[in-house]
Amino acid sequence: MEYKNGLGLLLAAVIVSLLFTIFHYWASVGAVSIVAALALAVMFGTGAGIIQRTTPFKGTSCGRKGVDGYPEIWQPYVQECSRIVTIQALAWALWALYIMYMIGSLVYKIGVRIKPTPGGYYSV
Known about the structure:
By secondary structure, the chain is mainly α. The chain contains three helices and no strands.
C-alpha cells in the first residue's frame, strides 16, 4: 500500500527534522536553506500528498460514516480515522513551515533589505 510508504517517508522526514533542529546551529545559512527546501519541505509535502490521495478519510468524515461507508480494504482502519487525518494535517503544517523557513533563509542569504529614501523624500 502506498499509505505505508507515505508513513515511512514521514517517519524519515521527522527523524531528519529532529537532527536538523538539533544541529542547525553549526550549519551555514546556505546549508540550512538547502536542507529546509530540498529535504524537509519536499519530504513532508510528498508524505502529506500520499496520505491525502490514498486514504478515504477526510477531516469531517471521521465518526460520521459507519464502517460500511468506506472501501473494504480501509474498513479495518476506520477506528484510526482521526489519527490518520491528524498525521496528514501535521505533515501539511510542517511542509508550510519549512517552505517559509526556506524563503526566510534565502531572503537573508541574498541580503534583501529595506533602504531609507534619499534626502527624506516621501516622508509624511
